[in-house]
What does this fold into?
Amino acid sequence: MKHFFLFAVLGVLASGAQAEDMEVVGSVDSKCVITPDTAGVYGNPTPDELSSDPSDGGVDPIVRYDVIQANYYKARISYPNSFSESPALNDVVNWTGDTATSQVSDTGMSGYDAAKIEYDNLTEFNLTVAGSTWFKTETSAEYGYGKAFPAGVYRAVVTAECIAI
Amino acid sequence: MLLAFSSYSYSSEEVFGTTGNAASAGYSWVMQNVLPQQTGLTVNAVVYRYTTIKEREADLLVHVQNENARGPGYIFRSTDDWSGLDGNTINRTIPTDSIDISYWGKGSIETEGEGEVTDAGVYYSYKYTPCEDQQSDPTCPGYIDYTAVQTEESLQLETGEQYIQAELDRKSNLKAQKEEEEREAREKLKEEALEEVTESLETLLGVINTNLLNDQSRVLHDALMAVNYLPKSYFSVLKGGTYSDSIHLKDANLPDAKKGAKVGLAQQILHQEMVQSQWD
It folds into this structure.
């Protein structure tokens, strides 16, 4: 009987209560913005080579990183290791590349190059200073062993990422 | 009306712009050659870029700066410390909180330490309202064409000058008329004087001392001098003196001469006879 009474009271309480679900909405804008600055162009200094080096008639692609707050992000940039578009190739392509700071908005960023981490075709920079940093990537491709590239259009992709630390 | 409204709308809008490279001709520049000379222009930001060539171990400071044109020191100065860092290209945008054009003095890039700056570029981001100074553009509402105003003022001035000139002419005419009357009076007097001189020159002979001349005599004298009428000898001063009477006649009764009375009576009688004979 006691238990029943208790349940009865609880039943009354339950039937008299109201519940509302309140939604909390928020959005996070990235504090790291990547902006393509200069489109790259491959030069063809020799029949077997494609190079973005200006001395080879090419243009190095440049990408800009803007970070609002220091020490929250790292930049990861990869030079190409394959063509996204090319004529049919029946030999191997040897890829080389390098990424370094091109311009900085703060002298402290000039230390990025000394502290960068390279592995495979990737280069990582810890963005320890707020501001804008321009990274330039050199890329070159040699076809076979002194073999001429087939005529056609060649495209490759430099990938730039901003990764939260 | 539509055009006027359109012009006003255009004039009231702010104009934003960026200068060319102030450091293109050297690392020191004059702002008058860089910024548009617009009244009320303000600089919002300075964008600069340069490349340092240095050893990592070397100390290097680079100053990008503008002197304060209205006081001592700098109105803008950004210093980059490259000490212990590799050389690189820096690209910075520094907000300047809308500083008026009048404060922006000579600009320059200076270095301290070991290293070199190359490929420098300095750009100023600015804004201004075209018609903030109404006189900056003839299309601005409220523009006053001072040349036209000057012309109007000149007309007014000319009118005033004409009035003054007319007044001067009137007075001048009165003066000329008066002078003419005086001249005629002098001519008349001169003629009368000449006639009088002709009749009695002797009256002039005693007027050598001009201080004793009355006005009329002076005028007459001048006239005679003008016509060179008087011989020079008349103006020679005679050695004067006093010539006293040397003979004194004592007063006495002088009786009428009987002989004379007879002659006189005879003449009288003769005269009466002659007159009477005319009636006889």
Q: What stands out?
A: Confidence is low (pLDDT under 50) at residues 1-11 of chain B.
